[in-house]
Amino acid sequence: MGLEEQLLTASIEQTFREAHKAERHLSRLTYLNTQDNVEKGEHADDLREAEGVLKYFVDKVFRDVGILAERLGLPFLRRDIAQARAAIKDLSEIDIDPYYDTEFHCGPLAEARKYFDSLECMTRGRAITGLAVFETVLQNTPKIIEDAGRPPSNEAKVRDEVLKVLRFCFRDVVREIPIAKNLKTYKPDIGVVSLMAAAEYKFIDSAEKAKRSLDEVYADMRGYGGRYDWRSFYAVFYMTRPFYSQKDVDEEFRLVKAELSWTPIVVVGAGGKKQSPAP
Predict the structure, then answer these.
(1) How confident is the model over 126-182, as pLDDT tens digits?
(2) Is the pLDDT of residue 249 over 90?
(3) SS3 per-residue string spanning the chain
């Protein structure tokens, strides 16, 4: 087994994460179904879009798991996976979870997971993914700042300390990567080209800045979207006090129907604006 199989395993794991996000999104919409809103209207449009996203990820995961089985020298399992996929009429079908009667789950996605679980143990020898390392560094931003011994007063200072650590992990980490649109060029704070992942930092030292930072991230979502070369985005809310919790921001992303490619990370660390000395 070579590096290609391990990279494919990492890609499949990421696809499962995206599929489960789509599953949760469709489940939330399904809870709002009535006899009058599933055929036409805004809710019906949202429902069709969510079903399409889930179908895409479930189809991809079946295809990639089949390729992994073939690369691992398991042609009969590859055949079984293909037959299981062909037997599914609706890849976005969701039903009440038999274990949690207040939640929905996607049966086809669970079926694909069953096959992948059988293969994953064969590829776990070096199963630490670049994206997982990237996320871990972002989540540990407060520790990085603490070790630096220089409490930051703005986003740039936080970003620069995190960049120092990321350069030990990735050769192709870049700062303020340009993402050009028709009328404006957007520049995420940090990106890793090989991961197609970028992070945008928000430095928050007041309740007012906390509210404003959410609006800024929503604008970033529109600006960074539609590019194949950057597919995973992280909004890191670096707060000097716990103005919001992780659950608060997760719920806010859900309510505004945030892009599924965006993941919020809420951390609390040292820093703040320097106060002028008293006269």
Answers:
(1) 445 688 889 999 999 999 999 999 999 999 999 999 999 999 999 889 887 766 554
(2) yes
(3) CCHHHHHHHHHHHHHHHHHHHHHHHHHHHHHCCCCCCCCCCHHHHHHHHHHHHHHHHHHHHHHHHHHHHHHCCCHHHHHHHHHHHHCCCCCCCEEECCCCCCCEEEHHHHHHHHHHHHHHCCCHHHCCCHHHHHHHHHHCHHHHHHHHCCCCCCHHHHHHHHHHHHHHHCCCEEECCCEECCCCEECCCEEEHHHCEEEEEEEECCHHHHHHHHHHHHHHHHHHCCCCCCCEEEEEEEECCCCCCHHHHHHHHHHCCCCCCEEEEEEECCCCCCCCCCC
Residue with tokens 């979502």: 221
pTM above 0.85, yes or no: no
Asked if residues 64 and 78 have their Cβ atoms less than 8 Å apart, the reply is no
